[in-house]
From TrEMBL:
Keyword annotations: Membrane, Methyltransferase, Transferase, Transmembrane, Transmembrane helix
Intracellular or extracellular location(s): Endomembrane system
Membrane topology: Multi-pass membrane protein
Name the record gives this protein: Protein-S-isoprenylcysteine O-methyltransferase Ste14
One Pfam family, short name: PEMT
Predominant place of localization: membrane
One annotated GO molecular function: methyltransferase activity
Amino acid sequence: MSIEQILEIAGAASALLLIAGLVIGQLNGEWRIWPAPPVGSLKSFGFWTLFRTLNVVVLILGIERFLTTLGGDALPLRIACAAVSLISGIAYAYTLWSLGRKATYCQASGLATGGVYRWTRNPQYATAIAAFATLGIAAAAWDATLLAGSLVIVYAMMARAEEPWLETRYGRSYLDYKAEVPRFFNLRHAAAELSAFVMTKSPSLAKHLQTKR
């Protein structure tokens, strides 16, 4: 059995078990695997092993497939997707740093609503989803693309599974924040920020756009 086959099997098994575990956890709280179970528990060990395995497999296969199959008419699109994936990955690392270790591992450390959290309630998930979705497209290989898609699903399910946990810990503060900021991408806020930037940096362009309206 080749290393590639081992990675494919490990990735597929991790993806299936994670998705099944997240679904079961939503139906029965006693079987919840996310938000993270107590550190040192069997469920915690199982979740983090599967989750990290899937992330590593997707990264290895995605990058390898991209680098070894460069060419064809779709190359410009694939390169663009790889660039977006890299930028999103850097943004993901920044959001992890801004949130802090405790909150990243689901230890209540205060509700974050400023900075990047004005744009999305889940900047880690939003940037990870963007990074792995575009990596899957850039890879253009059935194994890497399917596993990247499954990882995107896992991140989306994790974000949804966290919400009742956050509501319990932060109550009305989180509910008000939830009503104001979308789960993943705050396009309305982005449009407002862009409009404000144009108005400030280029008054002539802003006046021209207003005239067009």
